[in-house]
Structures are given as structure tokens and as C-alpha cells.
Amino acid sequence: MKVAVECQSPLLQKSLELFLAKYLSSPKKSDIIIRDEECLNERRCFYISTKEGADLLKPFSKSQLILALEKKYNELYPESTNTQSEDENTSERMNFEVLEKRIELLTKEYQKNILRAVKAFYEK
Asked: pTM score, two decimals?
């Protein structure tokens, strides 16, 4: 999911940029454009306001924001949701396998060091 932020409020703009740093993109390349003004005829627009009818009502938390954006993304691009989650699961599995191997190597190395220390202690 790629997101662009175009808000009139500098405080809201900066807050959203901090919350969504890993999702930020240019408006032309983004899947969703977040605004604090109502947007007409813009399918990708995600409206944040205190008014009824907004995609997300203020005040909100980071988790509420992410969940609302994911819901909007799934509405806009239902076909890409399945392939994206499969890709994420595959990369997570691969990362986990790498982590498992690294832990295994460190554990074996730690075990060798302990045995070496114990042998050195009893040989004296």
C-alpha cells in the first residue's frame, strides 16, 4: 500500500507523515491520497475530519489510522489483497528461516565456548 498525504493542517500533515513513514509515496504513484478536505470525484481519496461521512474521524490513534487505510485499500484493490498477503507470508517465512539458522549457529558457537571454558577449568 502506497500513501500520499496532502493536508491543509501542518500539524495533521506532519503527524500522518510520521505515522505512515514506511507507506509514503508521491501522489502520482500512491494508491491512496489522505486529505483533510472533502474530495469530490477522487476514488483514491481518504478523508479525515471531525465531520460525519469522513473515512476516519478525528481524534484517532495510529492503529485506527492503519486499519482504516487497509480497509480502504481492500475496497479499492480487492484483487491485489490476496497476492500481497501471499508475498508477505512468503517473505516472513524466509526471514524466519534465516533467523532460525542464525540462532542455531549462535547457539552451537555458545555451546562450544561453554564446553571449552568448563574443560579449561577442570584441566587445571
From this structure: 0.62
